[in-house]
Amino acid sequence: MSFLSFFPYELAPWQWAALIFSCLCFGISKTGINGISAVAVPLFALVFGAKESTGVVLPLLCFADLLAVLYYRRHAEWKYIIRLVPWALAGFALALLVDHFITSNRGFKILIGICILLGLVVMFWNDRRGKARDAGGGSNTPGENAAAPETPESTASAWWFTALFGVLGGFSTMIGNAAGPIMSVFLLSVRLPKKSFVGTAAWFFLIINYLKLPLQFFAWHNISVQSLLFDLSMVPALIIGALAGVVFVKKVSEAHYRIAVYALTILASLLLFL
After folding, report:
1. pLDDT at position 31 over 90
2. Most exposed among 57, 89, 170, 237, judged by the fewest C-beta atoms under 10 Å?
3. 163-178 as b/e, with b when 16 or more CB fall inside 10 Å?
4. 231-240 b/e with 16+ CB inside 10 Å = b?
5. What φ, ψ does residue 68 adopt, rounded to 5°?
6. Cα separations (Å) of 238 from 3, 100, 167, 175?
7. Model confidence band, residue 244 (pLDDT cutoffs 50, 70, 90)
8. What is the pLDDT of residues 61-73, one digit of tens each?
9. CA distance 158 to 179
10. SS3 letters for 178-220?
11. Nearest one of 24, 95, 28, 14 to 252, comparing CA atoms
């Protein structure tokens, strides 16, 4: 009897390798680069199916969220979390509604990819506005009565901006555990320092993912004893990934951190359309 025969799923060696790599990415995403989790989501979808994989992945993310909150618990910006959570719950409801109309794995993957791309468009638009404002001097001529131009920071604080990303985040996390890039875009837009970025994301996803558990269990029936046993076998990879994420954040500069998040978010969105 082979060693792999003790596990609840019959998987090929390459599938085990892909899933272990994915769990390393999940750990890194929670304590380091949030968007990297979406690079791993397509691998789980490839092995288990796009919709079915959400129930396998969610308990893994819940455990990784605990690790992240334990380490970054003092670095959260709660004003953003409080604004986002109600809109994310609206995204949950939208995902449950869409579930009745889109049943194919391909359809779910495309929806996730569209969510990420929408976030990227807003992020780059926001950054371009910031550069244009800086190039123009960023202020009105003395004596003018005109209102000051809206800055990227004020745009990111607007209710519609928070609503957009909250709904997209709740929707994408419900249909495919792929809200990491969406939240990365939002947190980059509000220009948080790297530790506040990770800490805010950690608390937000801790709340959202634990709220999702009963929905995945009772509404979609995606969590089972079999899936939980598999998740237990992946815990060491999650812990190793989480430690790697902590080291990364300590070593990398603020500018390089933003570049890494940008690049991985773009890569994640492209992978979902393959």
Report:
1. yes
2. 89
3. bbbbbbbbbbbbbbbb
4. bebbeebbbe
5. -65, -45
6. 21, 33, 28, 22
7. very high
8. 999 999 999 999 8
9. 20
10. CCHHHHHHHHHHCCCCHHHHHHHHHHHHHHHHHHHHHHHHHHC
11. 28
